[in-house]
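Hey L., structure's done. Input below.
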Amino acid sequence: MDWSFSAGWGSRETLNVALIRPELVAEVGVDVARGASGRWHHPARWNRARPDLFPDDVTRFSSPE
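Output:
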């Protein structure tokens, strides 16, 4: 399955992505404000790496319904 995302607000450019197997758990901060499409209104902020956790310890995001 091919995935692509919008490059930004008002842009018609798409970003092609390749899904990878996660190897690092990171703690991020996000604003809870989301648009009708489920996108966050503001970018996520890196807080820190979590070497005490493995990717299988973390609940993965699901697609917005």
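The longest strand covers residues 45-49. The chain has a mean pLDDT of 78.

-- N.
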